[in-house]
Amino acid sequence: MKVTAIANANIALVKYWGKRDERRILPQNSSISVTTDCLSIKTTVEFSPEYKKDILILDDKEFKQGSKEYDEYFESFLNKLRNLAKKNISLYRHFNNFIRNSYIRNKFVIRRRTWREAPMFVKVVSQSNFPRGAGLASSSAGFAAFAAAANKALGLGFKNKELSILARQGSGSASRSIYDGFVEWKKGERKDGLDSFAEQIVNENYWPDFRMIICLTSKKEKKIKSRTGMAQTVKTSPFYDGWLKTIDDDLKKVRKGIIKRDFSLVGKTAEENCLKMHALMLSTKPPIIYWNSGTIELVHKVIEWRENGLECYFTIDAGPQVKILCLKKDLPEILKRAKKTAGIEDIIVTKPGPGPKIVENHLF
Fold first, then answer.
1. 2-87+120-359: which CATH topology?
2. Is the per-residue pLDDT at 70 higher than 90?
3. The whole model's pTM is what?
């Protein structure tokens, strides 16, 4: 019942910002992303009647029930997993036998309970190789790894579509990290969310020259979580309807650009879409401003480099980190210039990467 999975974060080229259903995590708009090959989170999951409570440890820090992080991000997802497990007949029999044998072994004089009546708790330990909550889509990797490990541990047998739906209910962007390469998350129309899942556009090997330079301008955890910011934007921004009216065109252009390997079309559209999303944040009441001086400096630099003949584009998620899109041939020169730019704390180079994988070496 102990399983470990590794999943990678994805970076959106057409952003998702705003939900039509907060509880089910259903988006207002579809989105397109690229799964990275190096921003990884490793998660070990173990369900067992031996645990007396849920245990959640992220990067050596335990989050207890009652804390904001636990209640807001994990409790509903854990309950979803428990409900799915109760429908799994083979697991039901396994836990019945476990409980019966435990009572016999320990000579308990107690009415035999079925597993459906017994509590089932889980221990989750997760380690990331990049900063969480800093605008690098850590929740996409975290819940994709969590979902993949739980799927195996509970014997659910979910394929990619169902696994994407499951991961989405932990974090919307996690639905996209279930796949390698370039991925589109379909917003869906149904109230139950069964048509809101991600699909692969092309695999990780389709566009070998595509690169992304991730420039960290701050490793601190952001003050306003994406979930909170989205809700406030949908509620208060006077420009939100305009955002939704332009999304389908952005999706069409980026989808076409990926399939044709048209870097200019993908980069230009991704940059414009990013600026529109941050314009929404600025128009939120109170305004949401993630950018810092390093962010602004690098935005100006990327525009300047492009105007001088070095083709590159930027995209920025809900945070201060700038991701520079470029082709492999231009990577050395852009990397050299980026390292000389003020306000950058670290640089990570990535390309299209794989979906989740199950590994044998556990975290506990």
1. Ribosomal Protein S5; domain 2 (3.30.230)
2. no
3. 0.91
